[in-house]
Batch of 3 targets.
Target 1
Amino acid sequence: MTLQNILPWIQEAHQNGYGIAAFNANTMEQMQAIVLAAQAENAPVIIQVSHRALQYVGSGNEIRGLQYMAAIGKVAANSVDVPVSLHLDHANEQEVLQAIALGFTSVMFDGDDLPYAENVAITKRLGEVAHAAGVCMEAEIGEVPKPDGAPFDPNAINLTDPEEAAAFVAATGVDLLAIALGSVHGLKDKSLSLDLDRLQAIRQHVSVPLVLHGSSGVNNDDIAQGIKLGLAKVNIATQLNKAFTSGVRQVLAADGELVDPRKYLGVGRDAQMAEVRERLRFVGASGKA
Ligand SMILES: [Zn+2]
């Protein structure tokens, strides 16, 4: 299928207490693993691209990175017959506009650094551009930290305030709201818990589907509870990178003479595909395409 705006599938999941997964891709092989797993599970799926993925793929030029990912994402989506969305995560204004022009079907503007009023104004304006193009719009209120390996203080996280979340959604018209419940980006172990009471309070104030960032660092019980309480889009990145890399590491460790990249990248792709299938079943998206 051509790339889809996946909002109807997320809304359906939201109404029925299951989740749609968004998987980060940094390479072509990772994109392939995501769509092949979705096909095998008959699940709708989101390929997600981060700002750092754009820098990597574009060799430091984010717009070139967007061009690459848009082109590969279209081929990946066309290679399967389940709905696939291509989402740009945590982007600035220029990247959001470029992504919409290049055919991404979902975007997230990250105005964390901006004063509230400016964040609202830009999010609203970008949402209008996105909607005119048939693209799904996500934004975040509160902050899921991106520590980049640096230590963080779990008590210093700016968790989402329910009333501010309601005001933000009303003022911006976003389709999906990312909220901070205690998760952190980039953790390798599922050691964190979510503030599920806060989630219930947010749910009472906000009717749009909610998004969990940083799920790789959260214990599975809390993710499962959170999905039932309204976290209809679950972002998964580090967990996939772990699976891909452990596959590659095993092959290279077993054969010090190996030089053909296909022989280890292919194993990484297969290892990641298994992980994506497991997560699609876990969030409840399998069979929902
Ligand atoms: Zn995120």
Note: DSSP finds eleven helices and eight strands in the chain.
Target 2
Amino acid sequence: MSDKKQSILIDDWKNNRIRQSDQTKEFLYSLPDLDHQEVGKMVVEQHEKVFSEMDCLDCANCCKTTPPIYTNKDVKRIAAFLKTTPKQFKRQYTIEDVNGELIGIKVPCSFLNEDNTCSIYEVRPLACRTYPHTDDPAFAERPELNFNNTIVCPAAYHIVKRLRSKVNG
Ligand code: SF4
Ligand code: SF4
């Protein structure tokens, strides 16, 4: 991947994610009416292409702006890695959100290093491993989440943009 290509992608996302938001939303909300399997195949293809042109270590916007969600399995695994107890881990690093989900207590994330690496990378939460959920064959089924991800994540924005031109021809 070239730095120049990546900075063009990031600038496009910065300049157009809000300007294009109505069209993006309309497109994503039209996907549930299409063949989900076909959309899934197409989005996974665009996911591979866009992530081959972008390096998350030059971005980390998800880790800087969105607290991770922790499952109970995540808590046990990360607590063991940090040589603490699940109870202590929860007290120190998490808070319950309005939906009762356990989320990170602060943004940028407590585990984000200055060079954009993650200090618990090997054991990071499942939600971090799968973000921005654009390699999921069931992509068409979650328009609201997908839309929110185009605002936070330049890769998700470009994946959806390219998917839109494929679907609309
Ligand atoms: S916001 Fe997207 S492109 Fe940026 S680090 Fe997160 S997953 Fe990677
Ligand atoms: S746990 Fe790691 S990957 Fe997840 S938000 Fe924090 S720094 Fe990012």
Note: Residues 63, 68, 109, 111-112, 118, 120, 124-125, 128 surround iron/sulfur cluster (ligand 2) (CB under 6 Å).
Target 3
Amino acid sequence: MIRFENIKKIYQMGKVSFEALKGINLTVKKGEFVSIMGPSGSGKSTLMNIIGCLDTATEGSYYLEDKNAAGLSFDQLSDIRNRKIGFVFQNFNLLPYATAYENVELPMLFSGKNTADRKKTVKKFLSMVGLWDWAGHRPTELSGGEQQRVAIARALVNDPPIILADEPTGNLDSKSGTEIMEIFNNLWQSGKTILMVTHDQKVADYSERTINLFDGNVISN
Ligand SMILES: Nc1ncnc2c1ncn2[C@@H]1O[C@H](COP(=O)(O)OP(=O)(O)OP(=O)(O)O)[C@@H](O)[C@H]1O
Ligand SMILES: [Mg+2]
């Protein structure tokens, strides 16, 4: 489903360049649950951004469902992103002035669903994460764990086959973290492919295997 061939990412800052990924090879099969670990600065978020088509590699090939993402236009990349990938971030990234309902509805505003279909879908996924009764609350009126559950519901509304999560439990207490991991576990059981960055071995233990990064290289997987 996901294949990297000698992926390099070089960040250019004026005259200084920095090689954040130094030739990554990896494969993730459909339906796998993979965690990504490594020290701060080792390239985990850089790797996730390329997988999520939020950024492009400087060199190498990235195949998503056997299609080479290198060479696609910005519009083509955002189209793939909307259809194929659900994102969950450490800091939830919810719109602060929008309700839980509106946050979850948002990705569907770009996918051309009518109001009734959107409502059905918001209800389905907010219920799935146990928060339909909180639909009218804004992020400030929700706990961290609840905000992350809203963010997961939002990531799922367009039914993406791949979920990318960058430290999804990083800002949560251990009880909320466990609730989030139970949701990921259910998503994996339902057939989603999941890639998750974490610093926490207990969180990584939910996955089937771990890709370890160090200084822009994969050191084990
Ligand atoms: N936009 C950018 N411009 C320049 N350098 C960057 C940029 N983004 C990341 N880097 C550098 O690339 C390296 C890898 O960054 P990355 O964010 O991928 O690390 P990480 O493994 O996610 O770390 P953390 O655990 O702290 O989130 C770091 O040294 C970082 O400073
Ligand atoms: Mg990071």
Note: Residues 186 and 192 are 9 Å apart (CA to CA).
